[in-house]
Amino acid sequence: MKKIIFCAIILGGFCTTNAQKISLGKATDIAGKGLKAMTFTNADAAKLAKESVDWMDNNNQVAGPKDSYTVRLNKLFAKHKSQDGLSLNYKVYKVKDINAFACADGSVRVFSSLMDIMTDDELLAVIGHEIGHVKNEDTKDAIKSAYLKAAALDAASASSNTVATLNNSQIGEMANAMLDATHSKKQESQADTYSYDFMKANGYNVVGAYTAFKKLALLSEGGTAQSGFQKMFNSHPDSNKRAEAIKKRAEKDGLWKDPGTVSLPTAKLTK
Questions:
Q1: Residue 134, SS3?
Q2: Which residues, in sequence order, are bridge partners of residue 6?
Q3: What is the dihedral of CA 239, 245, 250, 251, to 10 degrees?
Q4: pTM: predicted TM-score of the whole model, two decimal places
Q5: Structure confidence by residue, pLDDT tens digits, 251-267
Q6: Mean pLDDT value across the chain
Q7: DSSP string covering 172-196, please?
Q8: If pLDDT is split at 50, 70 and 90, which confidence band does 163 have?
Q9: Hey, where are the domains in the chain?
Q10: Residue 93's closest CA among 81, 77, 80, 110?
Q11: What is the Cα–Cα distance from 66 to 246, expressed in whole angstroms?
Q12: Residue 164: which residues within 8 A CB-CB, separation 6 or more?
């Protein structure tokens, strides 16, 4: 199982120790200026996101259609390829890192190591959260900023109404920059709410969202936590608080069922 070569987001963001990192420098300043000036449509966001995801699909091991990870993911999400007005597609990256992300074009990518530690209900909650970022257009802002950084546009170009064509290297940098982005606490809270509502509306066990956050907290506390995962937790250190917020709402809705002590599995949950 090879190690993933880019940065990513799951209920926050983390990157691997050997992840390819974009040099922000000048591009960061330009991105800040261009982000406000540039006309950027949903179609632009979807196009650039697809280019980024296509690049990532070509540069990472994707589970095949008969792979147990793909079979499990399809079992859970086959009926959610069209969700809340979004057209979604799902794939699994067979990598060691624990993560998942969704992009502005509707691409959802789940890491095999995440599936190894999350139950079905927890996966539904985590991916529902990522879909929430797409629906709330948080991913549109992320890909726009990533595009400006990768293209290293000057102020004049950044204010253009036309999205430039990127070469393969720039697309790779854009993919890294997009997935290295972090969301605000407000955006994370809104995505948490979307995930809960998604679970509730579809009759899933909302307690899965609670236990997913509890597992993320346990991973961050462990002495053997991945350095990349630790970075994720440092960016979003509220996993326990967010779990308690879910519990409070579930109790109010009469949907709370005490899961008992939450622990990390000792065997892979994907067979």
A1: helix
A2: none
A3: 130
A4: 0.78
A5: 999 999 999 999 999 99
A6: 79
A7: HHHHHHHHT----HHHHHHHHHHHH
A8: low
A9: 8-252
A10: 110
A11: 35
A12: 151, 153, 157
Q: Annotate 1-18 with b (16+ C-beta within 10 A) or e (fewer).
A: eeebbbbbbbbbbbbbee
244 belongs to the catalytic site: no
Residue with tokens 């991945």: 226
**Alpha carbon distance 90, 20 (integer Å):** 24
21: helix, coil or strand?
Answer: coil
Catalytic residue chosen out of the listed positions 51, 130, 173, 188: 130
Distances (CA, A) of 27 to 92, 152, 177: 31, 5, 11
Percent of the chain with pLDDT over 90: 46
Mean pLDDT, range 37-43, rounded to an integer: 71
Q: Do residues 179 and 101 touch, judged by C-beta distance below 8 A?
A: yes
d(CA 144, CA 153): 12
Q: Return the C-alpha torsion angle 110, 48, 6, 136, nearest 10.
A: -50
> What is the reported pLDDT for 146?
78
Cα–Cα distance between 255 and 253 in angstroms, integer?
A: 5
